[in-house]
Amino acid sequence: MKVFVVNAGSSSLKYQLIDMDTNEVMCKGLCERIGIDGKLTHKSANGVLENEIPMPAHDAAIRAVLDALTDKTYGCISDLSEISAIGHRVVHGGEEYKSSTYITPEVMDFLDTLVALAPLHEPANITGIKACEAVMPGVPQVAVFDTAFHQTMPEEAYLYGVPYEYYEKYGVRRYGFHGTSHRFVAKRTAEILGKAENEVNIITCHLGNGSSLACIKDGKVIDTTMGLTPLEGMMMGTRCGNIDPAIVGFIGEKENLTYAQMDTLMNKKSGLLGVSGISSDFRDVEAAANEGNHRARVALDMFAYQVKKLIGGYVAALGGNVDAIVFTAGVGENSGNTRLGILKGLEGMGIVVDDASATVRGKEALISTEESKIKVYIVPTNEELMIALDAKEIVNAL
Ligand code: ADP
């Protein structure tokens, strides 16, 4: 069985074709500048195909991808009928979807109601689904939600201390994101620990351009750091993360900014970029810090300190019974110094990280020492495979 995995953004679309007999990626790629002009970058065992193709909308992008998948040189299938299912990354499933779902017209109607909660991402995801339906009619489609894994949170974790009526009227609550990644690494960590998924207490740390932690008790999320939107939690590449909410009005008033401008400031101009003034990319900021740039150093120190405090909170939420802390995504998998910066000083909590692990990069590894009560792992994430596995399971059960 072959599953086509689609991650549609507003002007881009990432895809993979995965062979579910081996879980191997057969081809993958990216469409960019959809709605502007259009560029396809397609990677297969035979090399990279780069093409500028007009992509006025997502259906043209999907058509270009399908041509690439069946291309004589760069393709990996001879006929589109080999694709048995399509798995879509969908950012928001609201309170309705606690797991992945087969896409029906009713599901599509419901997704429209969630646009208000994810105005930038949800319309793009919906467009991606419609484009696949138009170009590959009849191929079953599955939605895999970023929010779904977090739907097990109890009320005390997901409610905010604002008037309850806004939860009832507008759905103002913590939803959490990166759920597919947290689920993938939690599942894999349970396997590594030799325990059933519903028997593990884990703190998963997805640290990338966007970052979030999930606190998992008996295999279920009981808390996560992102909230109503992906702005909450630790500071990130360009997002401010947790700040005093009064800062919004304070800076807005001083600088005479509209709320939309303030929103851009918090989402696109803050975090590592805003503090360092260098870049949103950890590698650039690490390089500048190593050359003695103070703001770059303090930005990295802030990030590590904030993640440390969030981990401490989750150890408390788990009553100290933690099987493992797991690092994943670009920074979590690759930046040994960031991991050490986060974990050093937590020895009193039973977390002893191996200094030599600073050089471990991009592969599954145990990075705590023998004396560490809580094990610490790196587990590379694979959201596309998780999406494909869900699509396979759901479509096979139809
Ligand atoms: P996204 O949220 O865009 O998927 P990723 O998970 O790919 O992000 O993470 C991107 C971040 O990972 C960037 O800030 C990048 O600098 C960082 N990163 C990748 N490789 C390394 C490395 N070797 N050392 C430090 N940081 C790294």
Bound small molecules, deduplicated = adenosine-5'-diphosphate
Show unreliable segments: none
Major beta sheet summary: 8 strands, mixed
- Please report the number of helical segments: 14
What is the number of beta strands?
Answer: 14
Task: Return the string of H and E elements.
Answer: EEEEEHEEHHEHHHEEEHHHHHEHHEEH
The portion of residues forming beta strands comes to 15-25%
Structural class based on helices, strands and sheet pairing: alpha/beta
Mean pLDDT: 96
Looking across the biggest beta sheet, what order are the strands in?
A: 5-4-3-2-1-6-8-7
The radius of gyration computed from the alpha-carbon positions, rounded to a whole number of angstroms, is: 21 Å
Distance between the termini: 15 Å
Rough outline: globular
The helix content, as a percent range, equals: 25-40%
Question: What order do the helices and strands come in, and which of them pair?
Answer:
Elements: E1 2-8, E2 13-19, E3 24-32, E4 39-44, E5 47-52, H1 58-69, E6 83-90, E7 101-102, H2 105-113, H3 122-135, E8 141-145, H4 155-158, H5 165-170, H6 179-193, E9 202-207, E10 211-217, E11 220-224, H7 246-255, H8 259-268, H9 271-276, H10 282-290, H11 294-317, E12 324-328, H12 329-334, H13 336-343, E13 365-366, E14 375-378, H14 383-396
Parallel strand pairs: 1-6, 6-8, 9-12, 12-14
Antiparallel strand pairs: 1-2, 2-3, 3-4, 4-5, 7-8, 9-10, 10-11, 13-14
